[in-house]
Amino acid sequence: MTFEEKLERLKEIVETLESPDTLELDASLTLFEEGVGLVRSCRELLEAAEVRVQNVSQEENGDTTAEFISENENGE
Questions:
Q1: Can you give the three-state secondary structure of 39-76, one letter per residue?
Q2: N or C: which end of the chain has fewer CB within 10 A?
Q3: CA dist 49 to 19, 42, 56, Å?
């Protein structure tokens, strides 16, 4: 499943859980668990993409870009 497909599935889960139609508790918990798993997976993909971007930036510009990214993440 691609990142975009996972996000789309997460949207579907949220819409289902927020809908006025009441799901059974078991079904709601199953959807919630699936959503949590998708969030974790998406976070891992984003972190991997961030590392790739930093690596490419370091190769192109030396360590100064990586330092700039780190400083911005820390609010400096």
A1: HHHHHHHHHHHHHHHHHHHHHHHCHHHHHHHHHHHCCC
A2: C
A3: 33, 10, 11
Q: Compute the Cα dihedral for 54, 56, 61, 63 and give only its sign.
A: positive
Six-digit token pair at 33?
């668990």
15 closest CA partner among 31, 33, 36: 31
What the block records as the tokens of 4 is: 């975009």
Token pair, residue 63, equals: 């360590």
C-beta separation of 66 from 34 below 8 A: no
What tens digit of pLDDT does each residue of 16-25 get?
999 888 789 9
Residue that the structure tokens 């668990």 belong to: 33
> What pLDDT, in 10s, does the model give residues 54-76?
999 888 776 655 555 555 565 54
